[in-house]
Design a protein that fits this description.
Glutamine Phosphoribosylpyrophosphate, subunit 1, domain 1; autocatalytic cleavage; beta-aspartyl-peptidase activity; 8-stranded mixed beta sheet; hydrolase; Peptidase_T2
Length: 328
């Protein structure tokens, strides 16, 4: 075994004009979450417990698009989704359409541990949450004033807005959406920076786990489900590796991106970083996305084809990196 390793992400696709203050806030949050995970790993907490712990922290902080601070639907409400996977036996749990559960990732964990199913959604997931006694809050808890303002701009531009904390230029005419070269399923989008959160961990026993959580897209259609709760697309863990993806959900779904990393490691014999590089280059077609990954050997890797990805990585041998922009 190569020791423990951990990686966290706060979304791929970063506006190049992101204010310096916001960059620093993101780095501070990622650093705090890394230290939280490192402390848990040094205390011999299993990988599955560590990924849940770290993603709960990310959901509680409104900086990224998960839990409190989630993107708003076209109706101005929040519908969240999350998934978690334990590598050793490939056990998993996922939820979608969550509106009152304070920490969706923990509900996904309960689906895995306390139900005969792998995926619950909307009213069924909410009913299961009530039966399990998880902490519930009003939907307004997740809504921020910044999000209300950006939803208004998105509706004026008749567009999905990805980074809802970066002002859209020329919002009066809607040119930001109309002139954008970026598309999703053939439709124009404005600014590409979905801030889904995720964590992957391999513990000192070589057990891998992964977790992903998001509020989805600003101004998304009611009932839209992205890649984050889909096992094999946004999240995957097995005896070889753990992977969490972020970016254009529809492209990630088409590519079954997270599972592809494990597949090329198993069938092509690639190491972790080579596997990550291969799937980012060869499986995304015209989509923009990124991912973080760990292997059973204590390796950690990331890759993305967008302007940047909020990320942090650390290993037992002392390596630690927190970054946003292109990899060195």
């Amino acid at each position: 075994m190569g020791g423990w390793a951990i990686a966290v992400h706060g979304g791929a696709g970063v506006d190049p004009n992101l204010p310096t203050q916001r960059q620093e806030e993101a780095k501070q949050l990622l650093t705090r979450c890394l230290h939280l995970g490192i402390s848990a790993l040094r205390s011999s907490l299993p990988a599955i417990d560590v990924v849940e712990l770290v993603v709960r922290e990310l959901e509680t902080d409104p900086l990224f698009n998960s839990g409190r601070g989630s993107a708003l639907t076209e109706n101005g409400t929040v519908e969240m989704e999350a998934s978690i996977m334990d590598g050793p036996k490939r056990r998993c749990g996922a939820v979608s359409g969550i509106t009152t559960v304070k920490n969706p990732i923990s509900l996904a964990r309960l689906v895995m541990d306390k139900s005969p199913h792998s995926y619950l959604a909307f009213s069924g997931a909410e009913a299961f949450a009530r039966k399990q006694g998880v902490e519930l809050v009003d939907n307004e808890y997740f809504v921020t004033e910044d999000n209300k303002g950006m939803l208004k701009l998105a509706k004026e531009a008749n567009s999905i807005v990805f980074d809802y904390r970066i002002p859209i230029l020329d919002t009066c005419s809607g040119a930001g959406a109309l002139d954008s070269p970026l598309q999703m399923n053939g439709l124009p989008i404005s600014i590409y920076a979905p801030e889904t959160v995720g964590c992957v961990v391999v513990d000192s026993e070589g057990r891998c786990a992964a977790a992903t959580s998001t509020g989805g897209l600003m101004n998304k259609m009611m009932g839209r489900i992205g890649d984050s709760p889909l096992i094999g697309a946004g999240t995957y863990a097995c005896d070889l590796c753990g992977v969490s993806c972020t970016g254009e959900g529809e492209a990630i779904i088409r590519a079954t991106l997270a599972r592809e990393v494990a597949a090329v490691m198993e069938y092509k014999g690639l190491n972790l970083q080579d596997a990550v590089d291969f799937v980012v280059k060869e499986r995304l077609d015209e989509g923009q996305a990124g991912l973080i990954a760990v292997s059973k050997n204590g390796e950690v890797a990331c890759g993305f084809n967008s302007n940047g990805m909020f990320r942090g990585m650390a290993t037992e041998d002392g390596y630690m990196e927190v970054g946003i922009w292109d990899q060195n």
